[in-house]
């Protein structure tokens, strides 16, 4: 299987599925450097009682720990749902090279807040958008 | 000594001083509930090699752990420097009751990005503004 955006987004979706199994809002992500996954995480805000425990926040900390430095240069984050303001702020500080987003989050995502990531950061939208959107929609439908 | 905003901002400044002693950007904060400090933290981004290790992020996690729930209702954060986008996003998720800010951060702070905290959150600006501003200014002056 080719190491392309769809491949790594599937890995992020597998993380989202792990969140779902814990009754967490199903968002997952992986950080990739040179075709290698160096960090992966899923949302754990309920499990940890901690609003900061979004998938991206954990993955940024974990990737930096792996690298041994705080900047995520030459790294790509694959995340199933558009990052919120908090996570976009953290990604900005990290100077990550690329962020690949599955589904948009029109209400909570950073894009409609007119926020920007670091000038060095490339953004790709819409990879496996349907699958990434569907898992979140079904979660919230089941909660009603 | 009265338990007023100046009192708790002094405690936040003491945390900032601890950051300074570690050669970190000197920002500190405390979380107060019913006149009791339930969490305190200072910036540790260099020490931990982690861009997410801002004082506020650590204090939010720590206060939620103390409370045993993720929402910081009936809590006040005293922070020496205006929170950045990441920390403002986290404070928004936390639904904290009140945020008291020492010095403004015109460039990196959330206010000039037209971001808002939670509708429930009261914001107070300018408590011990000079001291809070001075410690950061002196740090960056020493780095030039």
How would you describe this protein?
Two copies of one chain form a homodimer. Chain A has a five-stranded mixed sheet. In chain A, strand 1 (28-33) and strand 2 form a beta hairpin. With 144 residues, the first copy, chain A, is α/β, with parallel strands linked by helices. Helix content of chain A is 38%, strand content 20%. Chain A has one domain: Cytidine Deaminase, domain 2. Chain A has helices spanning 5-21, 55-67, 85-94, 129-143, and strands spanning 28-33, 36-42, 76-81, 98-103, 122-125. In chain A, helix 1 runs parallel beside helix 4 (129-143). The A-B interface holds A 45-46, 49-52, 57, 60-61, 64-65, 68-71, 84-90, 92-94, 113-115 and B 45-46, 49-52, 57, 60-61, 64-65, 68-71, 84-90, 92-94, 113-115. Chains A, B: Zn(2+) binds at residues 54, 84, 87. Chains A, B: It catalyses: adenosine(34) in tRNA + H2O + H(+) = inosine(34) in tRNA + NH4(+).
* Helical fraction of chain A: 25-40%
Instruction: Classify the secondary structure makeup of chain A into a structural class.
Output: alpha/beta
Largest sheet: number of strands, sense, barrel closure of chain A? 5 strands, mixed
- Radius of gyration of chain A, in Å, reads 14 Å
Indicate how many domains the architecture of chain A comprises. 1
Task: Quickly name the level 1 CATH class of chain A.
Answer: Alpha Beta
CATH domain fold name of chain A: Cytidine Deaminase, domain 2
| Order of SSEs of chain A | HEEHEHEEH
Strand portion of chain A: 15-25%
The overall pLDDT of chain A, averaged over residues, is 97
Number of helices of chain A: 4
- Order of adjacent strands in the largest pleated sheet of chain A: 2-1-3-4-5
| Distance from first to last alpha carbon of chain A | 39 Å
What is the 3D shape of chain A?
A: globular
The beta-strand count of chain A equals: 5
Tell me what the CATH architecture of chain A is: 3-Layer(aba) Sandwich
The CATH homologous superfamily of chain A is named Cytidine Deaminase, domain 2
Low-pLDDT windows of residues of chain A: none
């Amino acid at each position: 299987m080719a190491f392309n955006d769809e491949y790594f987004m599937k890995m992020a979706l597998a993380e989202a599925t792990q969140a779902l199994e814990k009754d967490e809002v199903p968002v997952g992500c992986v950080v990739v450097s040179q075709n290698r996954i160096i960090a992966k995480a899923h949302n754990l805000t309920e499990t940890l009682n901690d609003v900061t425990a979004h998938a991206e926040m954990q993955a940024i900390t974990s990737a930096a720990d792996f690298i041994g430095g705080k900047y995520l240069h030459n790294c790509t984050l694959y995340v199933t749902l558009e990052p919120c303001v908090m996570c976009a702020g953290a990604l900005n500080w990290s100077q990550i090279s690329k962020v690949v987003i599955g589904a948009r989050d029109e209400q909570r995502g950073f894009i409609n807040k007119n926020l920007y990531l670091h000038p060095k950061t490339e953004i790709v939208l819409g990879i496996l958008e349907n699958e990434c959107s569907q898992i979140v929609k079904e979660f919230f439908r089941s909660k009603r």
